[in-house]
Design a protein that fits this description.
The complex is a heterodimer of chains A (525) and B (77).
Chain A: H1 6-21, H2 27-42, H3 44-78, H4 84-130, H5 145-160, H6 170-178, H7 182-185, H8 191-199, H9 206-239, H10 247-277, H11 295-301, H12 304-319, H13 322-330, H14 336-359, H15 363-381, H16 383-392, H17 394-397, H18 400-422, H19 426-438, H20 442-449, H21 457-477, H22 483-488, H23 491-508
Chain B: H1 2-11, H2 31-45, H3 56-59, H4 62-76
Classes of the chains: A mainly alpha (525), B mainly alpha (77).
Chain lengths: 525, 77
């Protein structure tokens, strides 16, 4: 079920009143049933995979909890009768058993995701090597699996680390895993926040309903007016790398930056808005990302929950792992600077390779990920140089002009890296990117070029207006959240704003007969 | 504590670590700095900070970090 579909709006129109009319203690069960319906409509195979995830993660986390309790009891009983060494051995034996269960649960859950994500690509590669028929070509990701697997694995690891206790009710874990708005494109959530919020009782609040409706409408506005419109041109540009070269690539970079922003943030606005409507708090996934002054800052502000997940469960554990510490010590003879950098460098590159791989099986994603890591490390190394520059020219570097320059530089840099997202092969992506510097064809771009991309000048004008609106609102948002300010001006004013949003979507959105509202770009990852 | 402050000053000489209480939340210490810091702490204090303790509340101030180091050192004994 697509967010931009009548079926989804009908689904919400039925769920919301039922959710608030039933007794509060069974609200979460209503939500669980709604999730089950949503998941089953998307496909029964997906429902089976999700059930496997819930069952294995539930079993493993309950085992961890029981194991921690037994460990505490056993060690307390041994305190008077056994030596410190014996108690340590006992503790290690408990830890070993927990680790084995953790590995088994990770193999099953990451294994399903791995097979679905890379099965078809591995089939093609082995067919190429052995000359056999490619297997697994019909393997495809099921609804939301990249997102819910990461959320539940995060929960699994939190219980394994004893950061949180295990949930005793498997249905509550199922509710967290299957919460329907999160299955479209995330965000990746944490059990102790979203999981708890899902099962808490919620009363209907008219003001909150209106506020949530505004956020949902704004999400649809971005998606249907800007993203789906620009996607037509972006797809046309990417489909013909032989034709659209040179300055067309610059146009492609800018259009894709606007399109992806409107698409991803729009979808997340709808997700968070739906959660808010039901009283469920979902983590924010963006913080005005295109206002970042460096790629590292951008990644702290774009798809925040994925970055946090990798940092928490891969980057830090890997950096402080024993092999990494040993490697760092082994390189001390090369100098303190080198040995201290070893964990950071290796962990950064590996995490970015994994982040790339998470996006898909195509090699372009892997290269994109690694290049992001390289840029981040390079800018980290250049920091002393920047500091000298800032000290030498304090007036310049504190000026609005310089801040604007760093923001534009970051957007251009990240858009350059994103070219890899647009093409099937790394070669095509690099060739297209570098053609910008060798082929000067602005004439062709503006003499019919941009008109050949499936959009009319009116479409471009509407999209440009949409981008301007998004930019203006982001600027206004810097001084504080916008919706409370709208709501403060009264219900009539707020409803008028909502109606204007809905009205402009109906007038200028790409939907209805003759148009296919697209699935969200991040849904394919 | 002075030893820890020295390590922190090596990373960010411009920051007043004795008073700052939002090192992570305020964006002064990024993940890159945190890993460098952990490596330095292991060198100087012979204390290994486990991944589960790498959370903002332990790194937001020099004092909180020092408490963490002391706690881990005591556990190791």
């Amino acid at each position: 079920m697509l967010f931009p579909s009548w079926a989804f709006l009908l689904f919400l129109a039925v769920l919301v009143p039922v959710y608030f009319l039933v007794p509060k203690r069974i609200q979460w069960i209503v939500l669980l049933i709604a999730n089950a319906v949503f998941v089953c409509i998307a496909g029964l195979l997906g429902a089976v995979f999700m059930a496997v995830t819930v069952a294995t993660v539930y079993g493993a986390t309950r085992f961890f909890d029981a194991s921690f309790a037994r460990q505490r009891e056993t060690l307390a009983a041994m305190k008077a009768t056994h030596t410190k060494e014996e108690r340590k051995r006992k503790r290690l034996s408990f830890e070993r058993r927990r680790r084995l269960v953790l590995i088994a649960a990770l193999v099953v859950n990451i294994g399903i995701l791995f097979v679905l994500k890379y099965g078809a690509a591995i089939g093609r590669i082995t067919a190429g090597i052995f000359g056999t028929k490619a297997f697994g070509q019909d393997l495809a990701l099921t609804m939301g699996i990249s997102f819910y697997t990461f959320s539940t694995v995060g929960y699994l690891l939190d219980v394994y680390r004893e950061s949180i206790p295990a949930e005793r009710n498997p249905l509550k874990l199922a509710l967290f895993t299957s919460f329907f708005p999160l299955l479209v494109q995330g965000p990746i959530t944490r059990f102790e926040t979203v999981g708890k919020s899902l099962t808490a009782p919620h009363s209907f609040d008219g003001k909150r309903f209106l506020s949530a409706s505004l956020r949902i409408a704004w999400g649809y506005w971005k998606k249907l007016i800007v993203a789906d419109r620009l996607l037509v041109a972006v797809k046309a540009l990417c489909a013909k790398p032989d034709v659209y070269r040179g300055d067309f690539i610059f146009v492609e970079m800018l259009l894709y930056a606007a399109c992806l922003y409107a698409d991803f943030t729009g979808g997340i606005d709808i997700t968070i808005g739906v959660g808010e409507m039901l009283g469920v708090t979902v983590e924010e996934n963006f913080f005005r990302p295109y206002f970042s002054k460096s790629i590292a800052e951008y990644w702290r502000r774009w798809h925040i929950t994925l970055g946090e997940w990798f940092k928490r469960y891969v980057y830090y554990p890997l950096s402080v792992s024993k092999p990494m510490r040993d490697l760092s010590k082994a390189t001390r003879k090369l100098g303190a600077g080198v040995s201290r950098r070893v964990p950071v460098y290796l962990a950064t590159i590996l995490v970015w390779a994994l982040t790339g791989a998470w996006h898909g099986s195509n090699l372009t994603f892997l290269v994109w990920g690694i290049l992001n890591g390289v840029v981040i490390l390079l800018s980290e190394e250049l920091k002393p140089l920047y500091a000298r520059f800032h000290a030498r020219f304090p007036k310049l570097t504190e000026s609005t002009f310089y801040r604007g320059f760093t923001v534009i530089r970051t957007v251009l840099l990240l858009s350059s890296l994103r070219i890899l997202d647009c093409y099937g092969t790394v070669r095509e992506a690099f060739s297209s990117f570098f053609s910008m510097f060798t082929t000067w064809n602005w004439g062709a771009v503006f003499r019919g070029g941009v008109q050949s991309l499936g959009l009319t000048y009116t479409d471009y004008a509407i999209a440009a207006f949409g981008v301007l609106a998004m930019f203006t609102l982001s600027m206004v948002q810097r001084k504080g959240a916008i919706r409370p300010r709208i709501l403060k001006r009264g219900t009539v004013f707020s409803v008028c704003v909502l109606l204007v949003l809905i009205g402009t979507i109906l007038l200028f959105g790409r939907y209805g007969f003759g148009f296919d509202a697209s699935q969200f770009i991040y849904n394919r990852f | 504590m002075e030893q820890l402050l020295d390590i922190l000053r090596e990373l960010h000489p411009e920051t007043d670590f004795e008073t700052e209480t939002r090192l992570v939340d305020g964006g002064i210490l990024a993940s890159f700095d945190i890993v460098m810091l952990i490596t330095r702490i292991e060198e100087e204090f012979d204390v290994v900070i486990p991944a589960k303790d790498i959370v903002p509340e332990h790194f937001n101030s020099a004092e909180a970090l020092y408490r963490l180091i002391t706690r881990i050192a005591e556990q190791d004994d």
